[in-house]
Specification:
The structure holds two protein chains of two kinds. In chain A, helix 2 crosses helix 12, helix 6 runs parallel beside helix 7 and helix 12 crosses helix 13. The longest helix of chain A has 23 residues. Chain A is globular. Chain A is of the alpha/beta class. By secondary structure, chain B is mainly alpha-helical. Chain B has eleven helices and two strands. Chain B has a two-stranded antiparallel ribbon with strand order 1-2. In chain B, strand 1 and strand 2 form a beta hairpin. In chain B, helix 1 packs parallel to helix 5, helix 1 crosses helix 9 and helix 9 crosses helix 11. Chain B is globular. The chains are: A alpha/beta, B mainly alpha.
Chain lengths: 399, 306
């Protein structure tokens, strides 16, 4: 035996087997966590998806490329804003790429198409935007978690604000599709005054001349618009050009008045009120770091979409960390996600029993800051620890 | 409903119609004279708006942006014609649709690569930013009045160009009998390039005019291209006069539909039912109009080919 240990080959073999044994223990920690980031990266909604992606990737980058101590592999895919493409791509991410988590979808109709195959395959979905009422109520799922908000929430917050500010006669404008009707329903849940007119425009309408002259004729004291993306930009430009902003106060949800819209409209937006669960000027350490790192990395101000993407990544980070990387134990992952032990950039954040956030909603207004840039300023808190209207209908199933 | 509201809607319809005309004029010239279906026409409009917006931002002057943007777009259009599109003239319409659709996709991705996915800033010049009082108590956006002026001016210039110049004569000849014009014409390739450049310049004018009203973003050309095709089908392919009339009809009908149909429906069936039905009817109105025109005049209102 005495020469056996001296034998160089045997010694190497011994050393190698010891190393292998210790590697087996850490193998799981070195294997990457796979995230399927499915978002709208082309077409009219691309700006929103790009912000979610950039926010998510920034969080991973600041974490040295890791999530919960394991290397992160983010597979970015484009749903083109289409439910069909979204469903096919989600299938590929789950079956071929074996993603541990899916995230990133912007639009609710895409979300509703992707949800059934995702939940059936027991893949966790972390929403970075879409929050359709179905998934908050009767169709709530143990595999769905929203790091954003339920679709009605921002509209409810504006409804409450318009009430608080004492406006008596409000005109409502939204595009003629399901989310448009939901938005105005959410608004009217908290606004109890007179609705001067309720207009449903064509989806992706370009010219709002007809609607603006109706506004001039009905003379409301405020107008609430739910016009996502380019529609909002078109409307606000034309609203101000028609001189209506002098007599009518403009309200919108946060995403119709965020940095991407401000960048496209500029000064005419000054004075517009909007609601958000987040603002770039919220004073907490996580947010200060997020905002400055985002501006450094991408050379533009973050939007609430970027903040949601960033928080989605940090929620996954916390869940992987708390399960010590053992993602096969679905019950443990669910428990870790429900605990949500991360510092959200929006401040207070916890999950309701339907896996939608209980969080604060703020009132923001567009102003010129000290440097002369047009930007949002957070004014006050509209709702504290607000949840959604559908949670009662959710009987969260066991895994 | 009162007189002022009707007047305002008529101005809105006129302004929207004249904008459609700027797009449709180039489209109908290319279609009528070269027998070329160009789905990338909307991309020229987008490129024009992007050039104008970025030059206006860089120089701080809307007018500089407009001037250089139009020239840039015309050059871009002519380069496109020389490098790619002239290879498609001899082929059938399906090849042209596929080829120009490819250009449309590449233009969208190219613009995204250069300018990014976020919409661009382009606002009306300060002197036109507010409303003006036309008659007592009736305010109308100055910028929309300016658009009406520019639209009428361009329509007038096009009329002079086509009815009273040598190029115009060749254009008219090409539109009514292409083969004969080709046989008689001296420099047809150059004429085609010039027409394409003119079409691109008109697109840029439309993009620059509409930029302060609409979002300058990737894909902005597609939504408006469909309307431009409706206009030239109604007006008669190849006819600039038809494009003008068709554009005014579409602009007026679309605007009037969105104002009057909801009022009419809510008077007839109550506000709740009207909210759904009126929108649907208003949005299909121009397509119903197109079907009706095609039923009675299959070649459009002002056909050029006999």
């Amino acid at each position: 035996m005495f020469f056996a240990l001296r034998h160089p080959i045997l010694r190497t073999a011994l050393a190698a087997s010891t190393a292998l044994a210790s590697m087996a223990a850490t193998a799981q920690m070195n294997e990457p966590v796979k995230i399927g980031l499915l978002s709208t990266l082309s077409g009219p909604g691309a700006g929103l998806g790009v912000d979610i992606r950039d926010g998510f990737e920034l969080a991973v980058k600041l974490n040295n490329g890791k999530l919960g101590g394991r290397p992160a592999e983010v597979i970015v895919a484009d749903d083109q804003g289409s439910p069909d493409v979204g469903r096919q791509t989600a299938d590929r991410l789950i079956k071929r790429d074996k993603a541990d988590f899916l995230t990133g979808i912007v639009f609710s109709n895409v979300m509703l198409a992707v949800a059934p195959p995702t939940f059936q395959s027991k893949t966790f979905y972390i929403s970075a935007n879409a929050g359709p009422s179905q998934l908050a109520g009767e169709q709530c799922s143990p595999y769905f978690f929203s790091a954003a908000w339920q679709n009605d929430n921002l509209h409810e917050a504006v409804g409450q604000t318009v009430m608080d500010k004492g406006f008596k006669k409000v005109a409502l404008i939204a595009p003629n599709y399901p989310a448009g009707k939901d938005a105005l329903t959410g608004f009217k849940r908290y606004y109890k005054g007179e609705v001067a007119s309720e207009t449903y425009t064509q989806l992706n309408q370009l010219d709002y001349g007809a609607e603006l002259s109706q506004l001039r004729a009905t003379k409301p004291d405020a107008v609430y618009i739910f016009l996502p993306g380019g529609m909002g930009i078109n409307f606000i430009k034309q609203f101000v050009g028609a001189g209506l902003s002098k007599d009518i106060t403009l309200f919108g949800p946060g995403f119709s008045a965020d940095e991407d819209v401000i960048k496209a409209v500029g000064e005419p937006m000054l004075g517009m009120f909007n609601s958000s669960q987040w603002g770039h000027d919220l004073q907490n350490a996580a947010n200060r770091k997020f905002v400055s790192e985002f501006e450094k990395a991408y050379g533009r101000k973050p939007t609430l979409y970027a903040a949601q993407g960033y928080d989605a990544a940090r929620l996954i980070d916390a869940a992987v960390r708390d399960t010590k990387g053992k993602l096969d134990d679905k019950a443990a992952v669910r428990k870790a996600l429900e605990a949500a032990k991360f510092d959200s950039v929006r401040g207070a954040f916890k999950f309701n029993k339907n896996h939608f956030p209980i969080q604060d909603y703020f009132l923001r207004v567009i102003v010129k800051d000290a440097q002369g840039n047009v930007t949002n300023r957070t004014l006050s808190t509209v709702f504290k620890n607000h949840s959604d209207a559908y949670v009662g209908a959710c009987n969260m199933p066991a895994l | 409903m009162n007189g002022i509201l009707i007047l305002e809607q008529m101005l809105n319809g006129l302004q929207f119609g004249l904008m459609l005309f700027l797009l449709a004029a180039g489209l109908t010239l290319v279609f009528g004279i070269m027998d070329m279906i160009n789905l990338a026409h909307g991309s020229l409009y987008m490129v024009g708006a992007y050039l104008i917006a970025s030059i206006a931002q860089a120089t701080g002057s809307f007018w500089m942006g407009l001037g250089f943007g139009i020239i840039g777009s015309a050059v871009f259009g002519m380069l496109l014609e020389i490098s790619v599109l002239r290879r498609l003239y001899q082929r059938d319409h399906l090849s042209q649709v596929l080829g120009t659709f490819a250009i449309l996709l590449m233009a969208n991705e190219g613009v995204r690569l250069i300018w990014g996915s976020q919409p661009l800033l382009l606002n009306a010049p300060a002197e036109l930013a507010g409303p003006v009082e036309i008659v007592a108590g009736f305010y109308y956006p100055a910028y929309r009045l300016f658009i009406i002026g520019v639209g009428l001016l361009v329509a007038g210039l096009l009329y002079v160009l086509i009815a009273h110049t040598r190029i115009g004569m060749q254009v008219r000849a090409g539109a009514s009998n292409r083969e004969m014009a080709l046989a008689m014409g001296a420099n047809v390739p150059r004429l085609f390039t010039a027409i394409f450049g003119l079409g691109a310049a008109l697109c840029a004018v439309a993009g620059g005019m509409l930029g302060p009203l609409l979002s300058v973003q990737v894909g902005m050309g597609e939504s408006i291209l469909i309307l431009a095709f409706v206009v030239i089908v109604i007006g008669g392919i190849g006819s600039v006069r038809g494009a003008l009339l068709g554009a005014l009809i579409v602009g007026m009908v679309d605007t009037a539909g969105r104002t009057l149909v909801p009022l009419l429906f809510s008077a007839l069936m109550g506000p709740v039912a009207a909210a759904n039905a009126a929108n649907t009817v208003a949005s299909i109105l121009i397509y119903v109009l197109m079907a009706a025109v095609l039923f009675f005049k299959p070649r459009g209102l002002f056909p050029t080919h006999g």
